[in-house]
């Protein structure tokens, strides 16, 4: 078994299934804490403030950046800002509890610069065509936003070699098992 990672950063392109895989991990390992990001994006139907994201205004986000409250932040898909609140992550790490960040490539690079001991995992689609199919299939974005996200996805996929581990999400349960092993969590 791999040495337990305290901080794991999970990155990967839009619609690859990062949310599904991390929800699957949380269901099986409730002790793994998943960071709740701040974002300037509007909530989607069903998203709950403080659970899926902290939905903040541009001014609030500016303040968080100015006050150094974010461990990393980035403009994602050329549109909204997303960032990881620093204090909750530091509190988990101080207690030695496993923490998971689900963030984009730019954020992962920033965390690598400030916390090089973290474990960096890239979740990849079986193919670009499959990624397009998943994005269309989930139906949460219109054609313009989909194109924007696929453009980011091309950039992200080209950076997969920067990561410690690449996991292909061909099957959620299998990909989750691989992430569990990568994080050094006990088999359950
Ligand atoms: P969505 O709008 O679909 O919820 O998320 C869009 C993208 O933002 C995803 O690729 C996700 O990984 C990224 N993201 C979510 N939270 C954060 C964060 O705190 N920091 C960074 N850098 N990216 C994030």
Q: Which characteristics define this entry?
A:
single chain; 188 residues; alpha/beta; five-stranded parallel β-sheet; 7 helices; binds guanosine-5'-monophosphate
Number of domains: 1
And the CATH topology? Answer: Rossmann fold
The CATH first-level class comes to Alpha Beta
Spatial extent as radius of gyration: 16 Å
- Tell the overall outline: globular
Mean pLDDT figure? 94
Characterise this structure:
With 188 residues, the protein is α/β, with parallel strands linked by helices. It has a single domain (7-182), classed as Rossmann fold (3-Layer(aba) Sandwich), CATH 3.40.50. 41% of the residues lie in helices and 20% in strands. The chain has seven helices and nine strands. It has helices spanning 18-28, 58-66, 86-94, 105-114, 128-138, 143-157, 172-183, and strands at 7-11, 33-34, 38-39, 54-55, 70-76, 80-85, 99-102, 119-124, 165-168. Strands 2-7-1-8-9 form a five-stranded parallel sheet, sandwiched between helices. A four-stranded mixed sheet has the order 4-3-6-5. Strand 5 (70-76) and strand 6 (80-85) form a beta hairpin. The longest helix has 15 residues, at 143-157. The protein is globular, with a radius of gyration of 16 Å. The two termini are 13 Å apart. The model has no long low-confidence stretch (mean pLDDT 94). Bound molecules: guanosine-5'-monophosphate. Guanosine-5'-monophosphate is lined by residues 14, 18, 37, 41, 72-74, 76, 82-84, 102-104, 106-107.
């Amino acid at each position: 078994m791999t040495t337990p990672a305290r901080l794991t950063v999970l990155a990967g392109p839009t619609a690859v299934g990062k949310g599904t895989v991390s929800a699957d991990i949380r269901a099986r390992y409730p002790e793994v804490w998943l960071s709740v990001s701040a974002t300037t994006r509007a909530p989607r139907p069903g998203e709950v403030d403080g659970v899926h994201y902290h939905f903040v205004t541009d001014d609030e986000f500016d303040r968080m950046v100015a006050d150094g409250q974010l461990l990393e932040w980035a403009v994602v898909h050329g549109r909204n800002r997303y960032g990881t609140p620093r204090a909750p992550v530091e509190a988990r790490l101080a207690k030695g509890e496993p923490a998971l960040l689900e963030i984009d490539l730019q954020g992962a690079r920033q965390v690598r610069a400030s916390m090089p001991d973290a474990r960096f995992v890239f979740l990849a689609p079986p193919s670009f065509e499959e990624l397009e199919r998943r994005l269309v299939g989930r139906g949460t974005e219109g054609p313009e936003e989909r194109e924007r996200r696929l453009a980011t996805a091309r950039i992200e996929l080209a950076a997969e070699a920067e990561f410690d581990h690449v996991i292909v999400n061909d099957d959620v349960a299998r990909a989750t098992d691989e992430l569990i092993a990568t994080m050094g969590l006990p088999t359950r």
